Amino acid sequence: MNEFMTLLLSLSISGTLLFLIILVLKRLCQNSFSRRWQYYIWLIVVLRLLIPFTWSPVNLRSLSAQIHTVAAVDEAAAQTNMPVAATAADTGQQQIPQTAGSPETTPADTAKRPQPALFLCLFFAWSVPALVLFVRKITIYQGFSRYIRAGNTEVSDIHMLNLLSDCEERLRIRTNVELYRNASVTSPMMTGFFRPGIILPVGVLDDQTLSCILMHELFHYKRRDMFYKWLVQLAICIHWFNPFVYWLEKEANRACELSCDEAVVAMLDDTARRKYGDTLISFLKSNSLCKSAPASITLTEGAAQIKERLGAIMNFRKKTKSVRVLTGASTLCILLTAALIPVYSVSASDAAKAAPVFMNEAPDSFRRPGNSLNNFRFDQYPDNASKNTDSVRYPEGADWDFNWDFDEGWEDKEDKGPWEQALLDAYAAYGVTFDGSSFYYRGELVYLFLDHRPDSSFYRMSVNAEGTVSIQIIRSAANEITGVAYMTPEEVNALMFGDDLPLIHTQEWDCSTLSAIEVRYKTDHISILPSPTDKVILKEYMTENQPDYYAGTQVQNGVLTICCGKRPANSYKSCIELYVPDNAPAYVQVETVSGAITADNYSGVLALSTTSGPVNICDSAIASSINSVSGEVTICDSAITGSIDTVSGRIELFPADMPGNLTVCSHSGKIEACLPASASYSLRAETASGRIRSDYFDIPPENQKAFSKVVGSSPEVSIALKTASGNIEIN
Amino acid sequence: MAQQISEAELVLMKIIWQNGGTALYAHIMEALEKDGNEWKNNTVLTLLSRLVEKKFLKVKKIGRRNEYVATVTQGDYQALQTHSFLDKVYGGNVKNLVSTLLRQDILSADELKEIEAFWRKENE
């Protein structure tokens, strides 16, 4: 029993160590390794957690046999170190004279003799939850697959089966994969270990989308991801007491989808890749419209993950040879580490080595030669190591967090604690909270936080790219905090991108021959402005002047295409301004991943699409089609017609005029509309599970899901607001 | 045997029946090609395995090749389908079915007489 529990603990510890090592390694070289590697590397950790083998130059058993006379004494001390802190320490002390008095007993004997009842208790305390967890996981899975199987209907459309057949041939899969339709699933999934089946949700899919889906799911089957997932589940059941295994599960699941995407994308060309991204988004949209998504291998798994997956798809490139060599080398290192992290299984002397991680009592017992865990003692770190990490403090999640006082320069660390706390307390009094890395205001994560003196030196400024609101602290002339205010997008932009970026490159085109302008960027801020002349002007601002950073442009069939130039990996900023004449015949189409798009004082036709960048339109008159996944969309003082769609991005509408029909849809984002009082329109608001609220209209309680209203006489325009789970507010 | 055969599966069954109730995979593919059906290998395999699962077919291994054997004859299947059709659409009432057939000129009066004659002869 004793040996077993020790083995279990040491497996857990060495698995955790390996997990942390790999996690650090992955953070260090984020994207140089292929996703596939990032996926399978977790398998090593899982196996390390499950399989009690170790390879080490010195055979621990023979070593312990040689020193067993010495060990017999040490053993006694070791017993006090068993991880059952208090009780073990008590009983262990009584054990000392007994063991010392009988030096002829072998280490194995002493290991078995002490407190068998205690270890039995420990064993039960571990095994009962493990067993319950395991049985539960299996029954849940069975119940789920029974539920799914009941709704399955075989697809007998020959065309679809042929497509599946094509995909199987491309992936060289020999087994017959079944194809089902199921009304109760919302996103495609793969089931079955030995008789695989792909389950599609109902609905019409075009060929290209369908083959993307099939390829993705077939890859799951081909790589036996189901077995992998269950292996992880098994590790969780066995190591249920170790919080890191749940983290491991999360990481492995994420890596699973990412590497599957990578495999699919590797077989696609550029346009097909875009299509694949669209497919992901479309399933995200439909996914939570119906609320039934029990766990399995599904195609989509939530907005944040989709964002990462989209990024990975767009940034896909084949790995170079040097990267492959590097990958191979680090794999070897990790494998070696995995094999060498000792598993203390055999004798009780080994148990002593595992114990110090939990205990500080009797420290002398583990200062023995050959004790490898000595290397992990924290007090052996040089003193300055901890100080170093402290002084370059980049809080997780915050991009940068300046925290200095201009008047006095850098403050001494020692004195700053109370001073900083007083400041944070003062913020908290006005509803701004700080969690150690980011600011929150009224429950929302703050994008830009600013607290500055009247002379514009600042107390504190912090930026978090994930944030949704920007705020500044208002101070009186006497430097007292008097309030908190939201910052307008212009103020934020001026501060963030503002005038510091030098204008590097300008290009011009005659607009009379252009019918469309297409702009494709990833992270840059894009501003669309009216042109002062009758030409289309592109101005590029960037911190470094390199010709290959310039935008790639091209005019073909009257379409001007502007693509993002090269971008270095770090500490580089750039933004572009596009000036389009008001009377231009061209419409402007902008696509970006995470860059912001703003249109100011512009009138014309816009088609904007972004994954996570915010969209701001001010003082403009536009006919638009705006698509955003998680970026916020704000329309201020503008005349707007057309459509706005987001998945989780919040939409704020403060239009000055609505000359035509307007459709606003969001899946889980909130829609806030403040419609002009003078206009006449017919309004229709609908939400599946959100709420409709209004300060302006009286909404009866029975209309909180759907609400219609005609405003003004003879309305010619209709305004539609729709969400699945987001709230709608009309003011 | 309440299982239904889908249209595509029926195409395969017909090929097997026409071949005398057993057919090799290669023969099935050949026959499909002759009819101008562009079915992929895996498509056919999937459909065949569904039929096996529904117990309309059995698989016999001949060396490394599979031979598919029909467990029901075409006549049995037709009878089965007629019964279920009759139950579903006419509530089991044969008279209504026949009157529809006559009214729609699917069955001519002459043919009906022929059947009557056949029926009498059988019963003698």
The assigned CATH architecture of the largest domain in chain A is 3 Solenoid
**Overall number of domains of chain B:** 2
Low-confidence stretches of chain A: 56-112, 287-300, 345-416
CATH superfamily descriptor of the largest domain in chain B: Winged helix-like DNA-binding domain superfamily/Winged helix DNA-binding domain
Helical proportion of chain B, percent range? 55-70%
Care to describe what's here?
The complex is a heterodimer of chains A (731) and B (124). Chain A is of the alpha/beta class and 731 residues long. Chain A folds into four domains: 2-33 and 50-126 and 340-383, no CATH class; 144-151 and 163-321, Zincin-like, CATH 3.30.2010; 400-487, no CATH class; 495-730, 3 Solenoid (Pectate Lyase C-like). Helices cover 38% and strands 24% of the residues of chain A. Chain A has 18 helices and 34 strands. In chain A, the strands form four sheets. Chain A has an eleven-stranded mixed beta sheet, with no helix packed on it. Chain A has an eleven-stranded mixed beta sheet with strand order 17-18-14-20-22-24-26-28-33-30-32, with no helix packed on it. In chain A, strand 7 and strand 8 (439-441) form a beta hairpin. In chain A, helix 12 (270-287) runs antiparallel to helix 13. The radius of gyration of chain A is 31 Å and the shape is globular. Chain A starts with a helix and ends with a strand. Chain B has 124 residues and is α+β, with helices and mostly antiparallel strands. Chain B has two domains: 7-70, Arc Repressor Mutant, subunit A (Orthogonal Bundle); 74-123. Chain B contains six helices and three strands, in the order αβααββααα. In chain B, strand 2 and strand 3 form a beta hairpin. The longest helix of chain B has 17 residues, at 74-90. The chains are: A alpha/beta (731), B alpha+beta (124). At the A-B interface, helix 8 of A face helix 1 and helix 3 of B.
